[in-house]
Amino acid sequence: MAVNSKIAVEKDQPGQPHRGKVFVAIHAHLDDVPYFAGGLCAKLMKEGYTGYIVRTGNDEKYGGHTIAENILNNEQQHLKMAQVLGFKDVFDLYYRSHRMNEISPVEIRGRLIFILRMLKADTVISFDPSSSAENDGDHAATARTVEDACAMCGSPSDFAEHLEAGFPAHPVRERYYFHARPEQRFNRVVDIGPHLEKKIDAIVECKSQGGGALGSELRARLAYEASHDATHVSPNGRPGGGLAAGGHAGRYRENRTDEDHADRRGDFSQGSAHRRRIRQRQ
Ligand SMILES: [Zn+2]
């Protein structure tokens, strides 16, 4: 599948041109989507998409408490973070963090294909599976299985029992891949200026990943940089992160690689078994 080499700049679109379409953001850890694509997700939902988020890992190593406490804290913060960005529902697969490369890719693939078919996903947002620069095993394992799931989701021959259960094969038409590491390629820059505050609000909820102050520190730094006309900032010394900046918040952007799929309007209807946790916990 060819990837566009020309860099496109994606800005806010007026109205809700994506109304009726569904995207699924798939990450490994609580803070991946907030850092790598939080502005993009907020933008797409404002433009009419219904968004869902899948976390493949359980974040048991993050938070500085016992493994059990870390799992619970990250689970609760994941729900809050998803609410802040506007996701309709959350799916947690709970694979053990730092051990995802030992799990059968076919098992994860089958679970993801089921979710994508159930939600009738038009668009998927996740890690770049082609990148040798990705040094996180959980990211790499998730990227590989997301790629396979998207490729096979539309095939009635794969996991045919889903069709028997009432979830037909459904092709994923469009993918956005995170620009998560400095060496990774990208061919699309998304202007997230209008959504920057929401992105920071989502980072603020990731209290188990970074001590709980990174979001507010970033907000303070942006205010300082804007008032002092800086030319560049990389948030929090974190490698990659998809953020670069001029002196003003409106020039912030997220970089990512997309694949050139045809854009087709989705036929969304919600799976009956999954109207659940976000609303239950409000
Ligand atoms: Zn991560």
Describe this protein's structure.
The chain has 282 residues and is an alpha/beta fold. It has a single domain (3-281), classed as 3-Layer(aba) Sandwich (Rossmann fold), CATH 3.40.50. The chain has eight helices and eight strands, in the order E-E-H-E-H-E-H-E-H-H-E-E-H-H-E-H. An eight-stranded mixed sheet has the order 1-7-8-6-5-2-3-4, with helices on both faces. Strand 2, helix 1 and strand 3 form a beta-alpha-beta unit. The longest helix is centred in the N-terminal third of the chain and has 19 residues, at 67-85. The protein is globular and about 60 Å long. Mean pLDDT is 82; it is low at 229-252 and 259-282. The chain binds zinc ion. Residues 28-29, 32, 136, 139 line the site of zinc ion.
Brief characterization of the structure:
By secondary structure, the protein is an alpha/beta fold. The chain is 34% helix and 16% strand.
User: What is the topology, as strand order, of the major beta sheet?
Assistant: 1-7-8-6-5-2-3-4
Are any ligands bound, and if so which?
A: zinc ion
> What share of residues are in beta strands?
15-25%
Considering DSSP H and I runs of 4 or more, what fraction of the residues is helical?
25-40%
| CATH fold type | Rossmann fold
**Low-pLDDT residue spans:** 229-252, 259-282
Which overall shape is indicated by the principal axes computed on the Cα atoms?
A: globular
Q: Got a strand count? A: 8
What is the H level of CATH, i.e. the homologous superfamily? LmbE-like
Helix count from the secondary structure assignment: 8
> How can the largest sheet be summarized?
8 strands, mixed
CATH architecture verdict: 3-Layer(aba) Sandwich
Can you tell me the CATH class? Alpha Beta
Task: Summarize the helix and strand pattern as letters.
Answer: EEHEHEHEHHEEHHEH
Overall pLDDT = 82
What is the count of structural domains?
Answer: 1
